[in-house]
Amino acid sequence: MSEKIKELKVSAIENGTVIDHIPASALFQVIKMLKLDVFDQMVLFGTNLESKKFGSKGIIKVSNKFFKPEELNKIALVAPQASIIEIRDFQVLKKTLVEIPDTISSIVKCFNPNCITNIETLNTRFTVVDKESIRLKCHYCEKITVKNTLQFV
Amino acid sequence: MKNKSLVSINDFTKEEQLRVLEVAREFEANPVQTTLQDHVIASLFFEPSTRTRLSFESAISRLGGKIVGFSEASNTSVKKGESLRDTILTIASYSDLIVMRNPVEGSARFAAEISPVPIINAGDGSNQHPTQTLLDLYSIIKTQDTLDNLHVAFVGDLKYGRTVHSLVIALCNFNTTFHLVSPVELKLPSSVKMHIKEKNLTYHQYTDMEEVIPQADILYMTRIQKERFSDPLEYERIKNSYILEKEMLHTTKDNFRILHPMPRVNEININVDSDPRAYYFQQALNGVYVRQALLALILGYR
């Protein structure tokens, strides 16, 4: 399937941000992380779309919204290969890739049930000790949350 | 160090750790002082502890300070469901410093972030117990006259023992050679070995304790708990190989000393206790001087 026909499956936007190459399984998580479920402008998305590179992918198009890198980098935990495309007047202005940040606040739960963050009401905080395999060290209990124990707040 | 909380051993730099040991020596020479006579110290033990609580309370008493607090959470508002946040904010207004043990991991870091008075972590679950590490360092420097270039052997449960993890990490500042003796199931975790590797230090792993004794300056014994084994038969098979007996001490260096964070069950035979190389009861006493030093430094008296 050509790129052109695929684009038609999720209409183009005039101004805003396209988030492409999201793993299909992570699409709704990304929507939640970016709070697009409560966003008041047009949001278009598609999932299980065919992708040459990834087999299957999700895509989100957000009208009239330009994110700060730190807002977008947190999605790298679930969509490490996502590309971010800024659109102005239907034209691609800038294309970047997400990067896993050095620290992560509030979005991930600590896997340790005996950690204070799972008992008291407070925001979680992690240092990313390994970006490749995703290993997050809890600021409070100092235990390591790894990729297969990753849960979101 | 004035007004600084101590949650994790790494909160203090190497220089600050050495300063604590130096002040501990002053208190050992002259333990009864009036330094804290105008202070109230809160001692909040959300779970029972014998040595740590009593040695803190002894340290506070010897410095003339007053103690408020509790030794278990069952008779307090915590039992009624009060949050740690509210407990800390309330008690901080009654006291100048809070010593806290709490079984919830990370509780001490959280308390230190919200408390207007400094917090000393007296153990947060399996996470950190930095005053134990400082008293271990003090016991080593006292018996060896140095912390540098020593051969330190750790024996027993190296996987779960938090005192072992913190002491290994602290000793990485002092060019230590590590001898790690444990059953295969209870080896030192790779997250702790990482600190040794980062400093390019040497470690050797063994399953047999007797080979390390002649090489060691310090033998740090720990208890092996049956419930740590997935296979109870494996525990039965190895349990007696990690018990220190007097006969095993025939070839040691002159400066060799035996440490143990206590409590001991049977991993050091009581026939070792009278040997001059057994240092674990003195080690427990050293905890009082180290805690006196910490209280004085954090409250700005040194």
Radius of gyration of chain B: 19 Å
Low-confidence runs of chain B = none
Mean pLDDT of chain B: 95
Most extensive interface, chain pair and sizes = A-B, 17 and 17 residues
Low-confidence stretches of chain A: none
Distance between the termini of chain B: 9 Å
Largest sheet geometry of chain A: 5 strands, antiparallel
Question: How many separate helices of chain A?
Answer: 3
The CATH class of the largest domain in chain A is Alpha Beta
The gist of it:
The complex is a heterodimer of chains A (153) and B (302). With 153 residues, chain A is mostly beta strands.
Short key terms for the protein model shown above:
heterodimer; A: 153 residues; mainly beta; Alpha-Beta Plaits; SH3 type barrels; 2 domains; five-stranded antiparallel sheet; four-stranded antiparallel sheet; 3 helices; 12% helix; elongated; B: 302 residues; alpha/beta; Rossmann fold; five-stranded parallel sheet; four-stranded parallel sheet; 9 helices; 9 strands; 15% strand; globular
Layout of helices and strands:
The complex is a heterodimer of chains A (153) and B (302).
Chain A: H1 3-9, E1 16-22, H2 27-33, E2 43-51, E3 55-63, H3 69-73, E4 83-88, E5 91-97, E6 103-105, E7 108-109, E8 125-130, E9 135-138, E10 144-146, E11 151-152
Chain B: H1 14-29, E1 40-45, H2 51-62, E2 66-70, H3 84-92, E3 97-102, H4 107-114, E4 119-124, H5 130-144, E5 151-155, H6 162-171, E6 177-181, H7 190-198, E7 203-206, E8 218-221, H8 232-238, E9 257-259, H9 280-298
Parallel strand pairs in B: 1-2, 1-3, 3-4, 5-6, 5-8, 6-7, 8-9
